[in-house]
Amino acid sequence: MNDSMSIPHLVMNASLVVQLVMLLLLAGSIASWIVIFQRSIVLRRAKQGHRAFEDRFWSGVDLNELYRETPAEREPLGAEHIFRAGFREFNRLLPKTRSSQAVLDGVQRAMRVAWSREEERLNLHLIFLATVASASPYIGLFGTVWGIMGSFQSLSMAQQATLSTVAPWIAEALIATAMGLFAAIPAVIFYNRLSAQSSRLLGQYEDFAEEFHSILHRNLQGRGEREAA
């Protein structure tokens, strides 16, 4: 390949606008890969933590003992966070009211808040991937249009229209298009994949909250029957 038509040479000699477009797309691509790796690690750990906590929860351990197991200095995550928020509210309201429904409503509100925080944590930065996926092709297209405009200008100023006159402009325009796709394709693939994984985990958290709510409801029913007897 002629050195004048090599990709590094074309990038270095592109117009300032196209270079800025390429730089923006490169920065977006690098940032999106950072987000992809970071979110993948977070979601993998969240799935492992959820399985470990559910195994412990359904092992028959006493709920008070399970609540005390989490060290105060460690922030609970996932289903454990929801469990601790609900059980803490349960223990706080139980001595204060004789209404089982008031206790259960308070527990449900506490678990809903914890679930919302887990949703925010799992979906952190995913909107950035969606933005890169949707905007990069258009940013690349802008660079392409600018390059094509440059090729027309070079043609109008040339005494003789030849391929060598317009080839560098067209080549840099196509590079801008390719970089836009290079940034957008991984972003859209991993946005869909990570969003699906996050949605599945949040669904599992919601199922756990419903099951835990039912356990507390049965606990209060049994306590009420014992007091009535």
Automatic annotation (TrEMBL):
Transmembrane segments: 16-37, 126-149, 169-191
Subcellular location: Cell inner membrane; Cell membrane
Primary localization: membrane
Cellular component terms per the entry's GO annotation: plasma membrane
Domain spans labelled MotA/TolQ/ExbB proton channel: 80-206
Cell membrane found in the keyword field: yes
Keywords: Cell cycle, Cell division, Cell inner membrane, Cell membrane, Membrane, Transmembrane, Transmembrane helix
Keyword match Endoplasmic reticulum: no
Record-linked PANTHER family: PROTEIN TOLQ (PTHR30625), TOL-PAL SYSTEM PROTEIN TOLQ (PTHR30625:SF3)
UniProt function note: Part of the Tol-Pal system, which plays a role in outer membrane invagination during cell division and is important for maintaining outer membrane integrity.
Annotated family: Belongs to the ExbB/TolQ family.
Assembly: The Tol-Pal system is composed of five core proteins: the inner membrane proteins TolA, TolQ and TolR, the periplasmic protein TolB and the outer membrane protein Pal. They form a network linking the inner and outer membranes and the peptidoglycan layer.
Protein name: Tol-Pal system protein TolQ
